[in-house]
Write a structure and sequence with these properties.
The chain is mainly alpha-helical. It contains 14 helices and 4 strands. Helix 2 packs across helix 3 and helix 7 crosses helix 9.
Length: about 325
């Protein structure tokens, strides 16, 4: 069997259509109901030997193995291997191009490559909203596919942008189902939202605005905790030691936890603290004294020059 038969990405028209037909034939009657589980099953069938769907590492470059790499191996490599941002972006740009040009098998492949992140995000959105779990998952996948088909994904991090399209769609499902409480009488005051006081990005933004954490700590927390970027990759790009950045992140997280426990990052409390900080740093404005006597500005006395007790007082 020659190399063109071994690797379907070299003969996209015939191989991909055959792969899609084989996927449908082998699905059977026990096809999963959950959208992510169904996508994972389809992805698993596409990467089965002897002819797994693969990308050519020689085309991608950026230090990846110079051979055809099956997509399940490529997924493990991107998730756990020491792969640079440039390699991840090149991989995903090639996946997007194949999905738009080579047919359904590569669309399934792109979804399968993103499933670990999408599943984790769906789990976070579904926490406490179990009855909405399937709707959240379905809308996330639909938004991901819409972006895969038509969004402008040129530039860095196409994978991250596609996943956040899915996140926003899932979040919209949850917000649409949340009941809106209408008070019987007008309430002039606002309502304190339930913890954790909004999206993580908003919490981190308040923390920076109030001086709880630094902008660098926010960037580290967002990149490593929310976007799952390896701190070793960030350290390599900055030319720093990973333990140094890790310690800075830990200090910021401890401060963030204490601020959350005190309630300082509640939007109402944050606004009050911000106003108090502005008042404390603002310069006091001189006002006229009682009886119409206004204190005037005085030039500083020179060394050895006596200062009159009435200097600087102007009669009304």
């Amino acid at each position: 069997m020659n190399e063109e038969q071994d690797h379907r990405d070299e003969d996209p028209q015939d191989g991909d259509q055959e792969g899609a037909r084989n996927t449908a034939r082998r699905a059977g009657r026990d096809w999963p109901v959950s959208p992510p589980a169904a996508a994972e099953r389809a992805f698993g069938l596409l990467v089965e030997p002897p002819a797994p769907l693969a990308l050519d590492g020689r085309v991608v470059g950026h230090g990846l193995p110079a051979r055809h790499i099956p997509l399940d191996e490529r997924r493990r490599l991107l998730l756990r291997g020491p792969v640079s941002y440039a390699a991840k972006d090149a991989c995903w740009h090639q996946l997007v191009d194949h999905a738009r040009s080579w047919g359904p098998a590569w669309v399934v492949a792109a979804v399968g490559m993103a499933l670990p992140a999408l599943t984790r995000m769906a789990g976070r959105l579904s926490a406490g909203h179990g009855r909405l779990a399937e709707d959240i998952e379905a809308e996330m996948l639909a938004a991901f596919l819409a972006g895969l088909r038509g969004a402008d994904l040129a530039g860095p991090a196409p994978y991250v942008r596609l996943c956040w399209m899915g996140w926003r769609a899932g979040l919209a499902v949850r917000h649409a189902e949340e009941p809106v409480e209408v008070a019987e009488t007008a309430d002039p005051g606002g309502r304190t939202p339930a913890r954790p006081y909004g999206h993580p990005d908003l919490i981190l933004g308040r923390a920076v605005a109030l001086g709880v954490i630094t902008a660098e700590q926010r960037e580290l927390i967002e990149a490593t905790r929310l976007d799952r970027v390896l701190i070793e990759d960030i350290a390599a790009r900055r030319g720093m030691a990973a333990p140094v950045l890790r310690m800075r992140r830990v200090r910021g997280e401890h401060k963030l936890i204490r601020a959350l426990e005190r309630g300082d990052l509640d939007p109402d409390s944050a606004a009050v603290l911000a106003r108090q900080r502005r008042r404390a740093t603002a310069r006091p404005i001189a006002r006229p004294a009682a009886g119409g006597v206004r204190p005037a500005r005085r030039a500083p006395a020179r060394a050895g020059q006596p200062v009159s007790e009435t200097a600087g007082v102007r009669p009304a």
